Amino acid sequence: MKGSMKPVKKKKTEEPELEPLCCCEYIDRNGEKNHVAACLCDCQDLDEGCDRWITCKSLQPETCERIMDTISDRLRIPWLRGAKKVNISIIPPLVLLPVFLHVASWHFLLGVVVLTSLPVLALWYYYLTHRRKEQTLFFLSLGLFSLGYMYYVFLQEVVPRGRVGPVQLAVLTCGLFLILLALYRAKKNPGYLNPASSDRSLSSSQLELLNRKGQEKTKGFPGTDTSGSLNNRTAKDDPKGSSRMPAGSPTKAKEDWCAKCQLVRPARAWHCRICGICVRRMDHHCVWINGCVGESNHQAFILALFIFLLTSVYGITLTLDTICRDRSVFTALFYCPGVYANYSSALSFTCVWYSVIITAGMAYIFLIQLINISYNVTEREVQQALRQKTGRRLLCGLIVDTGQYNRAHL
């Protein structure tokens, strides 16, 4: 009987094949097929929000979030094999920056108001997204579009005046391309940690212990932060770092265990709550590249800042020398008679001041990076030392001595 029995073959359930999408169709967040032309149809939350806005009634935060989610889901462009989703944070800089700069060119007082409000709005949006731990393409879009728009204004308003030669234009163009190349390199992998490679150095019993401890709450671990990761490598708890413990001991592994990524972090690595992954020798999460600055891309980040500063100062010098002749660069920046007499020179002068503001901010970041490198500390370690009150402020707060990794040549 047993020999005559044949195994029963299970019939495979044939899944219905999905029809290919055309260039204007897409699958929305509800899993249904939709069309780009129907982006304003069947939106009850948007209708309710418009009705409340017309009747001067307040909107609930939940309604605003649903409206933004609907807009971000339906904001798409036609593409091959289905419409592609466009990140809504890219659009404001593309629209607002030219409008603000053209308005600032109308009068000197308007220029002061607009150029003062732009950094304030950018800082407000930064702290808003930083507090929510959200990724945003706003600053990356603002930076790239600012580079392109400043170069466009330079070609349209400054070069035709005849004061800029071909060699000077070629040098400025090469600087622009070098900035983009360095940014592209800085956008690459900053040194993400691979959980598989980290787990090989641990035994199964250690992994089981760490998984159980990592899922517990902060009870018993004084170095636990709000993201669930553990860190006891502070000058207050252990001035000599973790050198007292063997590399493979369970205590050392428990201190460096990341409950989010389920791995043991090497020294000076940290878990980025915005990117959601651990990074080797993490310096900080940079909104201008929408990514972390770590062990693998720190040099490219510094190089991008340096090339940007040189190119920006060179472009500012060429522009001021063209629209304010026979004056030094510093004098022309604050005193340039007749610059608002025609719209072309007024727009160029406004763009110069916008570039000066951006360059000053990047110069401050570059200075802080050089100081941190000279003291062999990262920005993450500086902020942690200031929060835990284990660092010493020097030189009006520009230098922070953490006392951890700057006591010897590494």
Descriptive overview:
- The longest helix has 32 residues, at 343-374.
- Strand 11 and strand 12 form a beta hairpin.
- The chain is mainly α.
- Helices cover 49% and strands 8% of the residues.
- Among the domains are: 25-86, no CATH class; 93-188 and 296-375, no CATH class; 378-409, no CATH class.
- It has a two-stranded antiparallel sheet. Strands 3-4 form a two-stranded antiparallel sheet.
- Mean pLDDT is 77; it is low at 198-205 and 213-249.
- It catalyses: L-cysteinyl-[protein] + hexadecanoyl-CoA = S-hexadecanoyl-L-cysteinyl-[protein] + CoA.
- Residues 253-383 form the Palmitoyltransferase DHHC domain.
Short characterization:
This protein has 13 helices and twelve strands. It is mainly alpha-helical and 410 residues long. It is globular, with a radius of gyration of 28 Å.
